[in-house]
Amino acid sequence: MRANQHMSLVLIRFALILWALLATLGATAVAEELRQKLGQEREQELKQGPQYGGTLNVGTVYVTLSALSWDPADWTWKSNHDFGAVREHLFAADLTKSVGQGGPYRFVNEAHLPEDAIRGELAESWHWETPRTLVIKLRKGVMWHGKPGVMEPRELTAEDVLFTFRLIDASPKKSVGNYYDYIDEIVIRDPHTLVFHTNEYNAEWMYRFGYGYQSSIVPKEIVNTDPKDWRNIVGTGPFEITNYIQGNVQEFSRRADYWDHINLGDKEYQLPFVDKVKYRIIKDEATYLTALRTAKVDILESMRWIAVEHMQKSTPELKWARWLSQSGNFVSLRLDHEPFKDIRVRRALNLAVNQQEIVDLFYGGHAELMAYPQHPEFGEYFQPLEEMPESIQELFSFNPEKAKKLLAEAGYQDGLSFTIQVCTCSPTNMDLLPLLTKYLADVGVHIDIQPMEYASYLSAMTTQNHAPGYLMNNGHTNPIATLRKFGSTHTWNPALFQDLEFDEALHSLAAEPDEDKRIALARELTQHLLEETPYIWLPIQYLYTGWWPWVKNYAGELRAGAVRPGPIYSRIWIDQELKKEIGF
Predict the structure, then answer these.
(1) Average pLDDT, the chain
(2) Whether residues 143 and 88 fall in one domain
(3) What is the rounded distance in angstroms from the CA atom of residue 485 to the CA atom of residue 428?
């Protein structure tokens, strides 16, 4: 790779400039036009009425990735994406409040639901009996669909919820050891009522066990099966998983006896509408773009800006939505390795990277200079860069001369070298690396690039065997969890950041019931992290969702909980006549 570095850089520089010249505001204009038309389109959809049947083919946000595990005790971050249409949660997004239905929310956040945009899913109701006692009543008549060799169909009970909690809490694979410490015990009051006894307030209580990454309720019969086998998955949701081919497809089939309904106009309809949902797993970017253009997928949830203009011209029928990535982008620097123990080295690497050039040329302006650890959609928790202290603003400026000076002061006047691992599953990061290589080389820093397949790449980090440099995307999650990932014992802490005072402040943040005080403390902790510079902070890109107009009751929503699209897909229907009119 080093021998071809300079030629690659020349080609990439040329491509970046070309991309910037070609970029227009077309995609933004289309997105704005879509928003303006949503009310009219919604009215027309309701007038025509929904249709049952057909197959919804989706290239999801994680189109390049197969399922990581089917076992809820494995604490994988992607499980709600993979089986969240089969296994349900206590809470989910209230999709009647989506922009597409005239509401204020886009539902694209990775794992954050505003309190007024949450509905009970398996929970019929909930209330705080005392300041430390939460009572949750489950819906009656919700049935596990059953499966031969696994379990007979039966009603969901409080025992299943308690079993799930104990299973998840006892897992040795917990990414956060004290995740449920605020819960003393859960008591079953009757077959459909649970009482959560807590020892302190926790601002994330709805997220952690209600709609978060480890919130899928499973039947107690799972103990008699191999939970890692997809064939054994049973749920209460609108679909059953009926086929899985790694690296190819996940297929879900409609449940005819699903408990939930949707009100459209003055009528009630049983969910789901489509007979099947298929997740298409496609590793190659050109292939999944072609799949959308040729209608092999009805929805492609995540596309880079560079593809949008061409797709608009070649396939003008497509509809679009733009959203700011829900994942931070950075090069993690292992703080247990000598070069990076010195904050001057870490600051120098940030100053060596021309962040604004990356925004303007690499992303064609379709990026934000600073949007991590907090996300702009987190409201007051997000503090714009221009309001930050000058020492933080400097980290996002380009100053190679000062970078060289800092390296010399730290004893690296002759430069240094280190390895950066990158996942081949990210086209953006693979394309970005040669540019980072050039920026760092200009201040005497040489990097060796180690591309890895996702499974090996993820395993390296979770076992702390990753390289000193680790180019990564990490979800914003929610305003508290995005900071918690820098906790000393957290799995998703690739820099191995250790700060006991910071850990104590994290606990205080979650335990603070006053929202204004939480915002102030979160801003303080965010500034502290940026100042400590455990990462080379990188810009956050805007992404695009594209879909065919025969996809109805949809406006680009992506998540109804923590990376969970299942409830969204259950509410979509396919206009078969329109699909034929367009030629498919």
Answers:
(1) 92
(2) yes
(3) 23
At 519, list the tokens: 């915002």
Q: What is the pLDDT of residue 36?
A: 57
pTM tops 0.70, yes or no: yes
Cα separation, 136 vs 266, whole angstroms: 30
Euclidean distance between CA atoms 163 and 152, whole angstroms: 18
DSSP tag of 274: S
What pLDDT, on the 0 to 100 scale, is given for residue 37? 60
Residues 266 and 161 in one domain: yes
Helix axes 343-352, 427-441, angle to 10 degrees: 110
- For the segment 343-366, the average pLDDT, to the nearest whole number, is 97
Total domains in the chain come to 2
Residue 563, pLDDT above cutoff 90: yes
Residue 188, token pair as written in the block: 């079953």
> Buried (b) or exposed (e) across 225-248, using 16+ Cβ within 10 A?
bebeebebbbbbbbbbbeebeeee
**CATH number of the domain that 370 lies in?**
3.10.105.10
Residues 239 and 352 in one domain: no
152 in any annotated domain: yes
Q: Is residue 25 part of a domain?
A: no
* pLDDT level of residue 47 (50, 70, 90 thresholds): confident
Indicate whether 414 and 515 sit together in one domain. yes
Residues 521 and 568 grouped into a single domain: no
Cα–Cα dist 34/551, whole Å: 14
Contacts of the segment 520-529: beta carbons below 8 A, 24+ positions apart? 522/374, 522/381, 522/479, 522/480, 522/483, 523/381, 523/383, 525/483, 526/373, 526/374, 526/383, 526/483, 527/383, 527/388, 527/389, 527/392, 528/502, 529/373, 529/483, 529/486, 529/497, 529/502
Which pLDDT score, from 0 to 100, does residue 8 have?
41
Question: Which structural domain, as residue segments, surrounds residue 150?
Answer: 49-285+548-582
Q: Supply the DSSP symbol for 437.
A: H
What percent of the chain is modeled with pLDDT above 90? 89
Torsion sign (Cα): 145, 151, 157, 158? negative
* C-alpha to C-alpha distance for 150 and 144, rounded to whole angstroms: 11
pLDDT tens by residue, 74-112? 999 999 999 999 999 999 999 999 999 999 999 999 999
Model pLDDT for residues 147-178, shown as the tens digit of each residue: 999 999 999 999 999 999 999 999 999 878 78
87 shares its domain with 163: yes
